[in-house]
Amino acid sequence: MEIRLDGFSFQYVSSQPTVVSEVSVAVASGACCAILGPTGAGKTTLLLAISGALGAQHSSGTGRGEISVGPHVFRPMPDKVLFPQVGLCLQEPQIMISGLRDTVYDEIKFSLENISVDPELHEEQIVSVMERLGIQHLRDRKPFTLSGGELQRLTLATLLVVQPPVLLLDEPGNSLDDDALSRLVRILRQLRGRTTVLFSDNQPDLAILAADSILIMEDGEVISFGDKKSFLKNLGEFKSSLPVRKWQDVIRVLSRSSSLRAKRVKKRFGLA
Amino acid sequence: MRFGTASKFALSATLALLAFFLPWQASLVLFLCVVILEIFSDTYKPISAPAHKAFLRFLAYLVSLGLFMVFINGLLIEGDDDACIILGLSFYPDGLAFGLNVACRLMLLSSAILLFFVSTPIKIFADLLGYFGLPQKIISIILLTTFYLEQLPARIRQIFWSQEARGAPIKGNFILRIRSFFSILSPLVLSSLVESVNRGMALELRGFRGQVPPSRPRDVRDFRLAYLILSTSFVLLLWQVWK
Amino acid sequence: MIQSIKERIRRETSGPSLPLIGFSVALNLTVGQITGVLKIPVYLDSLGTVLTAVVSGPWAAVIAGCLSNLLAAALGNPTMMFFLPPMIAIGIFTGLVARAGWFRRSHLCVLGGVLQGLLAALLSAPISAHLFAGTTMGGADFLVVYFRSRDYSIFESVLFQGLLMDPVDKVITYLLVFSLLRGLPERLMNRFPGAANVLGGKG
User: How far is it, in rounded angstroms, from Cα C19 to Cα A247?
Assistant: First the structure.
């Protein structure tokens, strides 16, 4: 399902500045797009707007432009959550756990129950998604006893079990160790061609490894949008021209770190 | 024979209702029956060893409270009959009888209700309320409450320690302690409001509209038995009132 | 009329209000742990209910209050099941005074707490006196015994105990909620149906 934003802008309170302004991008069906930028760039707001949560929960906010999800055009944005067509995973995976179910299996089942899927199909769909994400051994565990990486895969499972044509992930690379990050990259690659994926991040490594196109934002505005190849080609230019102090801070901090993730970033940015 | 949750609930409710109508002697006998049921029956087997211990502690508390009530009412309520002197204190027969009535009622009522809960996890109880027709949203709030009840003590401990480390007084005069209480409560409430916003959104993002299907299917036989017990006790109570 | 009440209940139990009610019930049930450690001699067991009434509205608070009593019964104080009327009154009364803007001024909070305490005492007294002869397994029972030793009837003793204790408890509860909500960010408060109760015209 294609995602298209046309001159989309949003502000939460009329007296405050616009959080997202004049964003126009298109992500082809089945492609994976990374939205990069520092904290406060408007990445989360953009994902919330596409999912419908922004329109549903911030009725006092003001939007302009339009958002298209597949054949549906919303002006300025959907006013109710588009689940199960669009699945959004918020930044902290533990917040996505309902708190209403006791086991990993039941937590995944909860998503199917919410959209009234025939109970006879539950077992098959849940087992299949658990196998794809490698969490079948966690089946009877309590969700809140899982580690960060396991919790994130569970969250993905709760969304992927309904087979959403569009998957949105808000900073999925945050606080993941190297193994968990590699696993996430594999999962994102598996989804390519079947599910349109948009994810946000404030570091470029996951984007480099898993995305087809990269959107860079700062202060709510699009700084660049294009395919990964052109991003990599222009990396040096980006590195020097990105007017984002925080962004450079991230790189500087990473350059002192020795994790695999940091190494990857350093290598890409010529800091190694 | 092992009763299901619904019939177990019906039996406990009947015992609790009977406490308001039976004389104290009968209430006392039924109270003892409750104790025996908790210890020996399969139906009312406690959900955990700590639950069983808590129940026994509660029973000990109930009995001492009951004795205290008999003592106080025997001392305070004067009747027409002469007082009897025990250890230099005057106890009035009417007061003692009143105290016994109230104490046995409270003992039976409380133990019968707790007998159900000590052997039923709150989630199963929530299922039961759903079967009885309570709105699904309320059921989901009960389930969220059990979730918060598991999380809150750890959060409170964490805030408590950090406040203590920052030198917030937990001893001192009333005003100081109230201030200290506020410094614990304030981050707890703020974080919970933020979390409520995010969790509310997360639930909506997963398609939740307030519906919570029960975790297990309804046992029809169990429900028939429950309605039988409840209707029989209701008829008996009506008869008792009419008499 | 019924339709508008239904819509209000739906609004007050949707989105962030749903988890907030769950948190408030848990807060009502666990606040005793904190007051116990700090040796604060008040119950504050309607703190969550009052918070919900202001932030989400009266119907959400009624649900929070009733569930608090039901679960308190399940967790070891079975007599609480019979004290639903005072909890319902706390929810509705607080929701209404919050809507009237009383949680924007500290002196009005004190007045609200006193009135709320008196109302709670009046509604609890008949239940406590007739069903339990004044014994509710709480720490204030000694006051009932004291009044009874002064030749007051059970009902009078329970009522006097309530009239003495409840206003103090509720004034502290009201002032705590007032102070807790006063400094919260506008953007956070705006997400709840009762934002205007705290922010006034700004919400």
Answer: 35
A198 or A179: whose pLDDT is higher? Answer: A198
**Strand A72-74 with B89-91, pairing:** unpaired
| B70-103 residue pLDDT tens | 888 888 777 777 778 777 788 888 888 888 998 9
Among A156-165, B173-182, B183-192, C172-181, the minimum mean pLDDT is found in: B173-182
Please provide the average confidence, as pLDDT, over all residues in chain A. Answer: 83
Instruction: Tell me the CB-side half-sphere exposure of residue B170, using CA atoms within 13 A.
Output: 15
Residues B59-85 as b/e (b if ≥16 CB within 10 A, e otherwise) read beebeebbeebbbbbbbbbeeeeebee
How many contacts (CB atoms, under 8 Å) link A and C?
Answer: 9
Quick check: A6 pLDDT over 90?
Answer: yes
CB B232 within 8 A of CB B13: no
User: Cα–Cα distance between A25 and A245 in angstroms, integer?
Assistant: 25
pLDDT in tens, B172-198: 777 888 888 888 899 999 999 999 999
Q: Residues of B numbered 60-99 whose beta carbons fall under 8 angstroms of chain A's beta carbons: which are they?
A: none
Q: What is the pTM of this model?
A: 0.86
Please answer yes or no on whether B113 and C81 come within 8 Å at the CB atom: yes
pLDDT at B225 over 50: yes
DSSP assignment of A22-48: EEEEEE-TT-EEEEE--TTSSHHHHHH
| Interface list for B 150-209 with A (CB within 8 A) | 150-151, 195, 198-209
Percent of chain B with pLDDT over 70: 95
Q: Which two tokens stand for residue A33?
A: 């797009």
From B146, B109, B114, B140, select the one nearest B127 (Cα to Cα): B140
Residue C21 CB contacts under 8 Å (≥ 6 apart), including other chains: B141, B144, C13, C52, C56, C60, C63, C64, C67
What the block records as the tokens of B112 is 């019968």
Contact check, Cβ <8 Å, A106/B215: yes
pLDDT of residue C201: 65
C187:A60 CB<8 A = no
The domains of chain C, with CATH numbers, are 2-197 (1.10.1760.20)
Contact C6, C182 (CB under 8 A): no
**Cis before B169 (ω within 30):** no
Mean pLDDT, rounded, for B99-127: 89
Q: Under a CB-based contact definition with an 8 Å cutoff, are residues A272 and A266 in contact?
A: yes
Helix (H, G, I), strand (E, B) or coil at B222: helix
Pairing of strands A196-201, A20-27: unpaired
Closest-approach residue (CA) in chain B for A87? B205
* C59 residue type, one letter: W
CA C65 to chain centre: 7
A156 touches chain B (CB under 8 A): no
